[in-house]
Amino acid sequence: MTLYIVPLLFITVLLISLLRRKDAYSSFVKGAASAVDLMLNVLPYLLAVMVACEVFRVSGASAAVSGFLSPALEFVGIPGECTELVLLRPLSGAGSLSVLEHIYSTYGTDGLIGRCASVIYGSSETVFYVSAIYFSRSNVKNLRYAIPLALVASFLGNVIGCNLCRII
Amino acid sequence: MSFVWLLIMLASVTVLLFTDPSAALEAMITGANDSVTLALNLVALYGIWLGVFEILESTGVSDKLARVLRPVVRLLFKGESEETEKYISMNISANLLGLGNAATPMGIGAVGSMKPYEKDARKASPNMIMLIVISATSLQLFPSTVIGLRAAAGSADPADFLLPCTAATVSSTVIGVAGVKLMTALTGKFGRRKRRQLVIREKSA
User: Fold this and answer.
1) What's the domain count of chain A?
2) Rg of the Cα atoms in chain B
3) With a CB-CB cutoff of 8 Å, which residues 112-141 of chain B face chain A?
4) pTM here?
5) Which of B28, B134, B29, B18 is nearest to B87 (CA)?
6) Which of A78, B36, B43, B75 has the highest CB neighbour number within 10 Å of its CB?
7) B148 touches chain A (CB under 8 A)
8) Beta-carbon contacts of residue A118 (< 8 Å; ≥ 6 apart)
9) Cα dist. A41→A136, A137, B6, B48, B101 in Å?
10) Where in chain B are the domains?
11) pLDDT grade, residue B136 (50/70/90)?
């Protein structure tokens, strides 16, 4: 179904523009120009987050923390094998994707571990990346309780999803 | 954010100092390289989506969409301008469609045009936090990346996790929204009490 969303969206937008006699081309160029500007603002934040994530993974610190946390996650119903995924998912999309692929190739996709991992990856977002990027253009430096709250909410969602995987 | 970053960097580099000192810079360069590659890809992607947004803007469709979603947006975000409401409705619709990359520039626009927090402009206002929490708890209805990966890994039924996944994403968003409302109510109450105490103190002095 998603296959059709993007082409249909474009056709609709272009047709509306044609019917309303607007200059779609110059509008598109104007919008695309702001993307360059935007990315120049965002890149430093992106770099900082991704450097930290890579060091965290390569150093083995993330695996060590995972080993420490996995009994606690087992207790609330998340398979211990998914701990590193739970830990890295809020930090980096690319980093957690490689962990997800590793889980699929080690434990398969259709068992409990594979399904729980799919739920964890599919139902959460890169919290730190979203927070850093959304605020990249404002003067706000203090996000107050935004990140802890987002992390707690995602984690509770993971717990609910994994426990449902055991039933359904 | 700053503290978490410092903690992760410090802990990881300290571990590397003892295990594999040469890997420290290597890992940082890999991460930095990945971010530059990602940024280049994102310029391309955002270029397309911001271009589409600009066309929608010129035809007035974005105003219509904002008008349709206004009741929901007003319920969650109080007292923002029409421009901000427009960004928020575009952000939420893109997220629901699973177009996360189209949602991000709208989110940046929304945060950028929101009113500053009345107590301290350098801190995030409740509306900004609400937007972050909604986006970060992922409203996605159809996680196409995971389905694609499962299919590639030879899954017998790639969409088999959708039901618990939807339950997880909906409940995390509901918990997040409730959390923001709760925190706003709590800080509001404390703020008011503090202000009242100040007034009383001023009067007695």
Assistant:
1) 1
2) 22
3) 112, 114, 116-117, 120-124, 128-129, 131-133, 135-138, 140
4) 0.82
5) B134
6) A78
7) no
8) A100, A109, B143, B146, B150, B161, B165
9) 6, 7, 21, 18, 16
10) 1-59, 60-140+161-205
11) confident
Closest Cα of chain A to B51: distance in Å? 4
Residue tagged 């969303």 (tokens): A5
A72 is a domain residue: yes
Flag whether A32 is in a domain: no
Q: ipTM score of the complex?
A: 0.81
Mean predicted confidence (pLDDT) in B86-108: 84
Q: Please check whether residue A4 lies inside any domain of the structure.
A: no
Nearest CB to A46: which of B35, B144, B169? B35
State the Cα–Cα distance between residues A130 and A47, nearest whole angstrom. 13
CA dihedral defined by B121, B126, B132, B134, rounded to 10 degrees?
A: -170
H helices of B60-125, in order, are 61-76, 82-96, 100-113
Residues of chain A with pLDDT under 50: none
- How close, in Å, is residue B69 to chain A by CA atoms? 18
Cβ burial of B122 (10 Å; 0-12, 13-18, 19+) is: exposed
Answer whether residue A88 is part of any domain.
yes
pLDDT band at residue B147, thresholds of 50, 70 and 90? confident
CA distance A89 to A108: 19
Q: Do A49 and B35 touch (CB under 8 A)?
A: yes
Containing structural domain, residue A153 = 38-167
First to last CA, chain A: 24
CA closest to B28 among chain A residues = A51
User: Nearest residue on chain A to B34, judged by CA atoms?
Assistant: A50
Let me know how long chain B is.
205
